[in-house]
Amino acid sequence: MNWLVLLALSVVGLVPVTYLLVNAYLSRRRERVARVHPSSTRDVTIVIPVHAESIERFRSALRSACRQGSRVIVVGDGCDEPYRSLTRFEGSEFVALSHRGGKKRALAAGLAHVTTPFVLFLDSDTTLPDGAVTRLLSYFAPEVGGVGANLLHEESDSIAAGCAEFVERAREVVLRAMSSRGNVLYLDGACMMFRTELIRSFVASEEFLHLRVLGRETPLGDDWQLTDHVLNQGFRTVKAYDVGAVTRPPGNLGAFVRQNVRWMRSSWIRLGRYLRGAGPSAPGFFYRVELLGTYALPLVTFALVIARFPLFVHLLEGVVSRAYLATSHGLYLAHFAARPFSWAHLFLPVQTAVGLVGAGAFLGAVADRLPPHRRLRTLACGVLGSSLLLLTAVYGLVTVWRASAWRSGPSPEAPRGQDATGSGGGGFAAGTAFWRR
After folding, report:
1. From CA 130, how far away is CA 45, in angstroms rounded?
2. Which residues pair with 238 in a beta bridge?
3. Quick one: pLDDT at residue 50?
4. CB atoms within 10 A of CB 281
């Protein structure tokens, strides 16, 4: 193989390794987040959009919100009972929308009723720990405009749950690394708090409600749109890692794949807008590096696999040839008859070894974020999860224009009191994922 090609592959191959090593190192450093004396929980209104959620999941999320001591508003996105009765039973307010319009319109409808200085958006399948609102408020230093909770999954023995937990903890490593240098890349849409007046006009705007991709409206991107808006207003976005909002993982691998396809489509939309100059104007150098690295890394990795395949075949051919000659004619003849050794033969093993160092450091950082009793299982599932994530990244890019598929989710006629996942793996997990990123 041409030495120029090998040199190019070596340079490009250092990109993912450097990305993994830098994030693994910085994730262990102290975050640059100043804590302040928190405001009263009465200064916060919690807005919960709901559509075709299971009764038990909704009730759990609602009760966890009501325990915070804040005003709670539930927005029924094209649905009414039993959510209205459950909401009123807990002493909260219910706003019904006559037609299903998606999470963004539900958020806008809820925000229109907010009069407090802060608003917390909470998914209807996500529960808050006691005291969560108080701890989130303690991160609102004068320069902070938005604070996100750390998303956790309910424990489950399914492979899909292990894959989802690995992916979420890998994201946590990246966000912790960003926290040590400034702003985080996004606030998770499952649980995020903002200064109300900072986002009020934006949430009601056409730009937020009717984001278009290639002329087609998409409901994706509520979390990164709000994050980018806060950054553009000159405020910081931070994560509260001591606030663990708990949600349910995908029910099976099919739901996990569909969830990540939607996430990756949303990511490619954001990256495309950023490259066109539509992203935050001054987020900082490290933020730009992480944005490009996080969203482009899957493509770089996929390209390296394809580019290195001919070299792998070339080396494998030499190994097979030597093995055949050794077996047929003895080791002495095999030593002289096989093709001579070349320094190029060391390229793939060295590159692989360097890649393993970067991956090992990153996996170690991920393992530190996992409970000891689930560490090995989750890391094992992470091998499968990472492979699927790579494939969904490529598929999400080549199908980013498929806006109609982004609206798929649980049916309004889903049986009450049980999840709509079903054997097909679409329903509940896919629908909540559609709202999450």
Report:
1. 16
2. 147
3. 92
4. 10
Residue 348, burial from CB neighbour count under 10 angstroms (0-12, 13-18, 19+) = middle
Alpha helices in 27-158 (DSSP H): 55-66, 83-89, 103-111, 132-137
Q: Which helix (H) or strand (E) holds 291?
A: helix 285-329
186 burial (CB, 10 Å; 0-12 / 13-18 / 19+) is buried
For residue 418, the model assigns a pLDDT of 36
Residue 38: both structure tokens together:
């928190």
The string of DSSP letters for 3-18 reads HHHHHHHHHHHHHHHH
List the structure tokens of 93. Answer: 């307010």
Alpha-carbon distance of 41 to 69, in angstroms, equals 6
The answer on pLDDT for 207 being more than 60 is yes
Mean per-residue pLDDT of the chain: 78
Q: Convert the pLDDT of each residue in 1-24 to its tens digit.
A: 465 655 565 666 677 777 778 888
So what's the pLDDT on residue 433? 35
Domains of the chain, CATH where assigned: 1-30+45-437 (3.90.550.10)
pLDDT, residue 356, reads: 78
**Burial annotation 195-225 (CB, 10 A radius, 16+ → b, else e):** bbebbbebbeeeebbebebeeeebbbbbbbb
How far apart CA 24 and CA 17 sit, in angstroms, is 11
Which phi and psi angles does 124 have, rounded to 5°? Answer: -75, -5
pLDDT tens digits along 18-69: 777 888 888 887 767 777 888 899 999 999 999 988 899 999 999 999 999 9
Token pair, residue 112, equals 């229109």
Higher pLDDT, 396 or 133: 133
Stretch (H or E) spanning 121: strand 118-122
